Amino acid sequence: MKKVDISIQNISKIEGHADLDVKVREGKVQSVNLRFADNKRFFTQAIRGQSVETLPQSVARICGTCSIAHTMCCIEAIEKALNVSVSEQARALKKLTMYGLMIRDHALHIYLFALPDVFEKDSVLDFTGDETQYLKDSFDVKRAGNKLTQVVAGRAVHAPYPVPGGFANIPDIKELRELIPELKLAREKVMKVLGVYARCDRNYERETKFVALSGEEFNFLGDYILTSKGEKIPEEKYFEHLEKVVIPYSQSVGYEFEDDTYMLGALARLNLNKDKLHSQTRKDCAKYLKMFPSNNIFLNNLAQGIEIIHSIDHSIEIIQNLKLKQEEPPQLNYKDCQGVGVIEAPRGILFYHLALKKDGTIKDGTIITPTQQNQINMELDIKKLVQNSLDKLSKEEIQYEIEKLIRSYDPCISCAVHFLKVNWV
């Protein structure tokens, strides 16, 4: 096909809205413009002047899907700024909070958003026969993640218990241990869907750089930044390696890493850290882990499923060994200072830089979300996909492949702006 005009409006099964303009001339893809279309929300301006004590709850409202991630990253930035030490108990509760988020959020994507693409169905409402069991399984898995976060952090969304230096309320250990059977049931469900994704031979492969947090163990709080080129970077230095790219057709700015595009998310984390997964996860997922590292973006779905297994395995281990006692969060001594928080949200690295004032308010801040950082990489992947498909697929089939590729990234546009209408020119 040398010239094509295609329009897709309101792509489903992603979080947020976007437009995509693809220009093909003389059989060559000339440009791909992925435009995040949600209205700008100016949350970096909105945090100025807010109290340090209320800020973690305020930024939770940036995105319902990622609210826990924003709260935890904000808290880490405050702790780093004020040199607040965190107890081992608080670290364990932070990990459980993040694991609950990952179980819930990843389940939403791999069951309800991406699985219809594997079965070549428009949505889960079109599932028939054995496929309907996966829809039922999704509720069990999501429920387990929700309950874990509710017990540990107070709520599954906009959690009130995590505060700088610890938790305002300590969960009941009996209630925590009562979750173990439900977590084990969810694990059985997810192990079944892993095979579905592993057997699907869809390939969206393009060589790119992968970036993720790393440390002594596989968790979503991390110790330092690691790249697929072997670069090891302290968290507080991460922003120094990023270059902001103004995208005139999008409501969101993009980012490059050392003048190179890059990918964040579950695929990046598995590519760089699979040997640090929980021992039981490595054992039971061994045949799937052989597929990593990979440049195939579709495997981001499988990686998310494996991360659910790890989150359950490590959560059970933590709960079984946890001895809880009431701890008072430390007194915050405000001063003019700055701090950086870096954690792994479901879709990749979330970055907070906060400047605090001695009166306990926020002077300024920078928030960089994962989907912003993935935006340019997505455009390049779409460009390659379209170019390779022009002489092989119909325009309707190309449209569908573009949608499936974008869904493999599991983008969160609400966080990024601050999808999908496709216009072929």
Describe the structure.
With 425 residues, the protein is α+β, with helices and mostly antiparallel strands. Helix content is 43%, strand content 18%. The protein has 15 helices and 15 strands. It has helices at 43-46, 55-59, 67-82, 88-113, 115-118, 131-153, 173-177, 180-199, 266-273, 279-284, 286-289, 300-321, 370-389, 395-409, 413-416, and strands at residues 7-8, 18-25, 28-36, 162-163, 166-167, 209-214, 224-227, 232-234, 242-245, 254-257, 262-263, 337-345, 348-356, 362-368, 420-424. Strands 1-15-2-3 form a 4-stranded mixed β-sheet, with helices on one face. A 4-stranded mixed β-sheet has the order 8-7-6-11. Helix 6 (131-153) packs across helix 8 and helix 9 (266-273) crosses helix 12 (300-321). The longest helix is centred in the first third of the chain and has 26 residues, at 88-113.
Instruction: Enumerate the spans where pLDDT stays under 50 for 5 or more consecutive residues.
Output: 5-13, 415-419
CATH class: Mainly Alpha
- Superfamily at the CATH H level? Cytochrome-c3 Hydrogenase, chain B
Summed up, the helix count is: 15
**What is the CA-CA span between the terminal residues?**
13 Å
Indicate the multimeric state: single chain
Give the mean pLDDT: 90
Give the C-alpha Rg.
21 Å
Name the shape in a single word: globular
Let me know the number of strands. 15
Class per helix and strand makeup: alpha+beta
Beta-strand percent range: 15-25%
Q: H/E order of the elements?
A: EEEHHHHHHEEHHEEEEEEHHHHEEEHHHE
Q: What helical percentage do the residues reach?
A: 40-55%
The name of the CATH topology is Cytochrome-c3 Hydrogenase, chain B
Give the count of structural domains. 1
How is the largest sheet built, in terms of strand order? 1-15-2-3
At CATH's second level, what is the architecture? Orthogonal Bundle
Largest sheet: 4 strands, mixed
